[in-house]
Amino acid sequence: MLFNAPPSQFTARLLACLIFLAVSAPVLAQNAASTLPPEVDALLARAKVPREALAAIVVDAAPALAGKSAPLLSYRAGSLMNPASVMKLVTTYAGLELLGPSFTWNTPVYVDGTVADGVLHGNLVIQGKGDPKLVLERLWLLLRRVQGLGIKTISGDIVLDRSAFAPAAQNPADFDGEPLRPYNAAPDALLVNFKSVVMTFVPNPASGNANISFEPALAGVRQQASVPLSAGLNGRAALTECGDYREALKADFADPLRMAFNGSYPVGCGEKVWAIAYADPASYAERAIAGLWQEMGGQLGGRVREGRATPHQAPTFEMVSPTLAEVIRDINKYSNNVMAQQLFLTLSQQQPGGASNEASRELVRAWWQTRFAGPNNQQELPVLDNGSGLSRLERVTPQGLARLLQTAYVSGAMPELMASLPITGVDGTLKRSKSRVSQGWAHLKSGTLRDASALAGYVHTPSGRRLVVVAIVNHANAPAARPALEALVDWAVREGSR
Predict the structure, then answer these.
(1) What CA–CA distance (Å, rounded) separates 247 from 138?
(2) What's the per-residue H, E or C state across 325-359?
């Protein structure tokens, strides 16, 4: 990775990057098509979005290979725009280049004491290092390895070390006032199960109730086991009508120590799964680990608490995450915000002072200036916040994103990055895309906020040509402009085949 190289290697790689870009980076010609396709224009008007709210570019993915340099379309492509979750392209490609596709996160576990007759006389220490995918199944495997050491009872405490990331002042309600939405979960050096609770509702008409299961079972939290079935309509219709089951349940999650429902569950809904962020995220890891340890038959003499691992002590074992190549598939395919923020913080974990958003912003800006050096470098420099796009502050130009995607296309990381992007009409966040022309032909990252809508990625054409498409709308009606963005992708498939 570029910034980990010794000074002499760094200079050589920097020179190689500059030579490569001088030879093969596209010159975004001023004579490119600067008027929008009529179908895009019409759909923007239907959405009541002025064309000046759109910025877009369509250009060959590898201009040098295609023998072309001018974009097929360049419309306000140098404008700084809020890209919403499309910003994840910057974070994930930076991760692939700076960390490498085989990078993994390790979670060290320390047995701080002696083990005799199934009892650990001391503490168990779990040290978080930023693993973005320490989900419940992998946490179970971690604790099972502890039991595999012959430990059934811990006389002391389970100590959680979360010091690898700088303390965050982020409140889950800060972004949009929806603290129980899982997408608002804040990053954490020891991020357990995305700080979320998954509730499964299964109707049992014979008993007149719907049974509720909770994953995980949080220690010290009362979780209601069932809820009455609603009467519904008379006759058979009651078995088929569902409606807004979440509204009908009248959930009460205000008290972190009690998860209750004051309503009923419509019998016609069948089985439903509802995930929420826990109301007290600061205590989530402690409660989840204590609850799971108890479920597994473990005994705890003390409590689960925060603390620090002993410096320079060798871990008893380490839990290893999936590779970065696998993790970015979750980040991009499903637009996972907290996983993107975990990766963004990890980029600066080896910097003096440790991982923080401030340090990662500086690191990514330095990487961008080095990797995408060019005549428009300063204008194209992104405005970074947390690297996930869940931000009102982040900005990037379509031209800058196109440069990133073109550079990635001719890099060794291309297969991993492209495979991480949703395929139009096939999977991820674009599975429900209605586009018939581009269905199966485009790998695109999508992004949506209340005032931003975006698509960016690679488009394949029947003629074998590959294009980069970036389109961003910033406007109060931006979500309604998604059909216009999809129409631009369809236009690129057709135009690129000529």
Answers:
(1) 33
(2) HHHHHHHHHCCCHHHHHHHHHHCCCCCCCCECHHH
Q: Which two tokens stand for residue 305?
A: 């608490």
How far the first Cα of the chain sits from its last, in Å, is: 39
The residue type found at 141 is L
Nearest to 489 by CA among 164, 119, 10, 72: 72
Question: Whose structure tokens read 């402009």?
Answer: 481
Percent of the chain with pLDDT over 90: 78
Find the length of the chain. 498
**Of 93, 127, 188, 119, nearest to 314 (Cα)?**
127
Phi then psi for residue 424, to 5 deg, are -55, 125
Output the pLDDT for position 64.
80
Q: What is the helix (H) or strand (E) element at residue 252, kind and residue range? A: strand 251-252
Establish whether the linkage from the previous residue to 228 is cis, with ω within 30° of 0. Answer: no
SS3 of residue 91 by DSSP: helix
For domain 2-102+324-495, which CATH number applies: 3.40.50.80, 3.40.50.300, 3.40.710.10, 3.10.410.10?
Answer: 3.40.710.10
Angstrom distance (rounded) from CA 20 to CA 229: 66
pLDDT digits (tens, 9 = 90+) for 8-54: 443 444 334 433 343 344 434 344 567 899 999 999 999 999 999 99
CATH 3.40.710.10 in the chain, residue ranges: 2-102+324-495
d(CA 56, CA 43): 15
Is 464 strand, coil or helix? coil
Rounded to whole angstroms, the Cα distance separating 480 from 484 reads 9
- What distance in Å separates the CA atoms of residue 328 and residue 331, rounded to the nearest whole number? 5
For 398-439, write each residue's pLDDT tens digit: 999 999 999 999 999 999 999 999 999 999 999 998 787 888
350 contact partners, CB below 8 Å, separation of at least 6: none
Q: pLDDT for 105-115, tens place per residue?
A: 999 999 999 99
